[in-house]
Amino acid sequence: CYDCTGALVKNKVPSLALANQMWNGCVPLQLQRLTIPEKMLVAFHYPHCFVFKLFPKNGSPGDPDMLQRGLAGNVTTYTLNMPDIVHMLEGDLMPHPAQILASVMAVTFIGLGTVPKRWLSNTFHVRRVAVLEALLWLRANNAMYHNVAISEDHLKSLPVDGVPDE
Question: pTM (2 decimals)?
Fold first, then answer.
């Protein structure tokens, strides 16, 4: 990155280098395996809104194997559903309801027709057990999550393993 390159040119150790004790350790499996929507369901804060643009490769709109698997980002600004976001941030009840995902994520498909739901399942699926395991790990190991109450109702509203309806 620019900051690291600048420090190295000046024969200095970059401020965020591992040599400056910036290693936090290995990310536990309970957090490594979370999909983007699952991360958002257990996060206290959202630094941005995710916008996904999906393009079929080689102009083949019908074959799910032709959908791009890599993600690339750009910044797009959309009006957010602020009442839902404020409600979500109040209190320590987790996971957030799946409906909040529509306030902080947008998916745009570029191509003919509609996107079959199975195309979205790899990137956008939510697994109820993965969300629960992540919250249990965070509550046991992260001081910010010690007072989190895990809502059985919110968990039951999540798909067992699928893309949320909203």
Answer: 0.65
- pLDDT of 59 reads 55
Which residues, at least 6 apart from 101, have a Cβ–Cβ distance to it below 8 Å? 37, 40, 41, 164, 166
Tokens of 131: 């969300």
CA 129/CA 151 separation, integer angstroms: 13
Q: Tell the residue number behind the tokens 């996904």, with chain if given.
A: 52
52/138 Cα distance (integer angstroms): 27
Dihedral Cα 150, 30, 137, 38, nearest 10 deg: -30
d(CA 38, CA 129): 10
Intervals of the chain under pLDDT 70: 46-91, 110-117, 166
Residue 16 φ then ψ, to 5°: -100, 15
CA angle 77, 36, 103 (to 5 degrees): 40
